[in-house]
From TrEMBL:
Protein name: Hemerythrin-like domain-containing protein
A Pfam family annotated for this UniProt entry: Hemerythrin
Protein's UniProt keywords contain Iron: yes
Domain named Hemerythrin-like: residues: 41-151
Gene3D superfamilies reported in the protein's UniProt record: Hemerythrin-like
Sequence similarity: Belongs to the hemerythrin family.
InterPro entries assigned: Haemerythrin_Fe_BS (IPR016131), Hemerythrin (IPR050669), Hemerythrin-like (IPR012312), Hemerythrin-like_sf (IPR035938), Hemerythrin_metal-bd (IPR012827)
Organism superkingdom: Bacteria
C-alpha cells in the first residue's frame, strides 16, 4: 500500500517538475523578442522592444528575490514608459486620422488606470504584477496595435 503511494507521489512530483520546467521554458521563450511582435512600424516596434525589455528586467528581478521596494520601482518605471509610449502611439493615430483612435486611447487609459491602482495598493505580488504586465504587452500589442499598424500600412488615410 505504502509502495503504491510512494509510486503515485513519485509520478506526481515528476509531472509537477516537468510542468514547472515547461512553464519556465515557455516563459523564457515568450520573453524573447519574436517576429510575431514585429508590427511593421519602426517607431512602434522600437518602443515595444524597450517595453518588453523592461518587463524582462522586472521578471529577472522578481526571480532573484529583489526587495519589494526595488520591484515596485521597476513596476513604476514600466508604467512611466508605457505612458510615454501610449502618447507616441496616440500622436501617430492623430497624424493618420485613425478612425478607431477613441477606442484605442480609451484602452490605453484603462491599462494605465489599472497599473496605477496596482501601484497605489502597494500590496501586489510579483507574480500578479508580472502576469498583468506580460498580458498587457502580449494582448494589447497583438490586437489593438496590430490594427493600428494595419490601418497605417493600408494607406487608407492618404
Ligand atoms: Fe496601443
Amino acid at each position: 500500500m505504502g509502495g503504491m503511494d510512494a509510486k503515485k507521489s513519485g509520478w506526481f512530483v515528476n509531472r509537477a517538475i516537468r510542468f514547472f520546467l515547461g512553464a519556465i521554458y515557455q516563459a523564457g521563450q515568450m520573453l524573447k523578442w519574436d517576429s510575431k511582435y514585429e508590427l511593421g512600424n519602426d517607431r512602434i516596434d522600437a518602443e515595444h522592444r524597450i517595453f518588453l525589455s523592461l518587463i524582462v528586467d522586472f521578471h529577472d528581478a522578481a526571480e532573484q528575490d529583489t526587495p519589494k521596494d526595488k520591484l515596485l520601482r521597476i513596476f513604476k518605471e514600466i508604467c512611466k514608459y508605457a505612458e510615454f509610449h501610449f502618447l507616441s502611439e496616440e500622436n501617430i493615430m492623430i497624424d493618420h486620422r485613425y478612425p478607431e483612435q477613441e477606442h484605442h486611447i480609451n484602452s490605453h487609459a484603462k491599462l494605465l488606470a489599472e497599473a496605477n491602482n496596482k501601484l497605489q495598493s502597494g500590496s501586489i505580488s510579483a507574480d500578479d504584477a508580472f502576469n498583468f504586465l506580460f498580458n498587457w504587452f502580449a494582448f494589447h500589442t497583438s490586437s489593438e496595435d496590430k490594427k493600428l499598424v494595419g490601418y497605417i500600412e493600408s494607406g487608407t488615410d492618404k
